[in-house]
Records
---
Amino acid sequence: MSREFLRHALATLAYRAGKTLRGVGDEFGTYKADPSSRTPAEILAHLGDLLDWALSIAKGKQEWHNSPALPWADGVARFHTALAAFDDYLASDEPVAVPLEKIFQGAIADSLTHTGQLAMLRRMSGNRMKGENYYRADIAIGRVGQEQSAPKLEFD
């Protein structure tokens, strides 16, 4: 796996998560599907932790933190900041301490799974979003912020 491929995976995560995170507010962040389940804001905090962890692994100084849930807009900003920090590192000439496949199979694959959980929770909470043909999405390496391209083909 190349750095460029992993950066494309991060851009894909930014696009898919961005769609899931937009258009909802703090009330969605506190939604509980079940008394024992995590809230969307807690899952979002975990996503930020996963990306911080991935960066620490890449730097050869593996560290894990359990961050508290933030108000929705702050959690979204933290997620994109963590994505950008990791993407910036991968774009640099700094060495990566472990095989990129290990980072993908851990933090990035887990992040994609949690993005799907958030999409499902949106529907359950009444905050439905349109499906999309992600194959047609305009995803660009390095575009990991909140600003993403408009969907090319959505459906109900």
---
Amino acid sequence: MNKTVPEFFLNRLNEAYGENLSNKIIDGYVSSRKVTLRVNTLKATKEEVIKAFNDNNIIYQEVDFYNDAFIIDNVKENDLWKLDIYNEGKIYLQSLSSMLPPLFLDIDESSHILDMAAAPGGKTTQMAALTSNKACITACELNPLRAEKLKHNVEKLGATRTNVMVKDARQLDEFMRFNKILLDAPCSGSGTLDLTNEKTFIYFTDKLIEKSTKAQLALIKKGLQILSKGGTMIYSTCSILPSENEEILKQILKTGKVKIEPIEIKTSLPLELLPTTLEGVICVKPNEYFEGFFVSKLIKL
């Protein structure tokens, strides 16, 4: 047995992916992940950020699937915190995997967008930037402390057409309507485990996984209730467990009121995808560039 993860989780991994692939997933957890960020185009241009990198001797790579994203090669996050471009909200530190869901939502300046579990605001403010602050965005967060962090980031990054609601999205009025919904659902975080932190498995338990699946199912049902007919929902998690991903979608697909729209990522970066039990969805294997992440695109019929 691999001693780096608890037996309950190893069993879940082996059941989903087999022993060989499970060991590769565990190797991915211990990889030293690259520092990544995106330009906040509401406050800065890409050229302005590149100049700041050059002025501070920061070595960077561009990201081929997202024009506003960078991989940083020679400094850590806490070094970036000292830069004016960080403190002025001109860049936002965000994992490459976390940047994926908004890119698949097909939003534009006329969109009415709901972000159902929005804190700390990375994807919320990314959507504001992608729509040049012209789309109406409603961002929900039920935890008051996390909602304060969300409000802080919305303000810092200049997302002026974003309305933050300190509310459980499951309790939204059933008569509300949105044509684009992002549900980056609360999850166990099984794609982002830090095996170097001895406290990780105090919080990461079978009970957390079970609690997460109940919340995920309730949230996706509510989201589809208030999604306009023909509208798009992205359902994503930072989990790689089928119980939080495909199994949730299978329950929704049974209603016949929603379909999966296939998605794919084309990139020269070392992106590795895990096998899934549904076609058209993606599950990213953790490695030095990407966190473990699941993304699916749904259309309401």
---
Amino acid sequence: MEKLNIYGDMRINKKGRFGCDISSQRLDDLDKKAIRHILSQRKHLSCIDLGCGEGKVGIIMSMIGANVVLIDKVNIAERIEPIASNFKLNLKFVNKDARELQKKDLPLPLDICYSQRFIHYLRFSEAEKLIDALSKNMTEGSMLFISASGLNSELGEAYPDKNKPVAKRFAFLNKKLSEKHNIVEPVCLYTEKDLENLITRFGFKVKSLKSSDFGNVKGIFEKI
């Protein structure tokens, strides 16, 4: 099986057109930090896994005591419902496009928003609206764990909008990289500064912000 990146991940396609399934193969540092944060708290936290894919990390969060809502436009209800029932987990799946989320879809208060390799599938203006809506359901001290495909990663090679400001970036990857990573939808690729500007304008402060060795951008933000 073809290796996908420098970490040795394999090309395992998820349902749909939104990238290969990385989370089922390993937990990365952002996953681990989100899980450790939940374990460090002395209360049951309400969390969402936005753009959850197969839902592995959200399931783990639920198993360690969090109340979790998984959200994705690809329907994985048949996978999630038996797990929630058999293990008696506070785990729910919402089959919805993130751009159509309503307040009733979210646990309140929202203590943790976790989203890996998803936000880049939205236009920057759509991402702004989403972060604004999430922020309004989060209170001081709530945490946002988020990653985005990086402009300076392999995906940025021959990216048509590379030299455009982030607000105007939204383009298809070149054919070779699109096929390799199973990303066949247009994307808005991010730099660290782009992600920081997106999140902090809606009442968050940076706790951690860096690019992975592959070049994807990962941030941890706290609601203030």
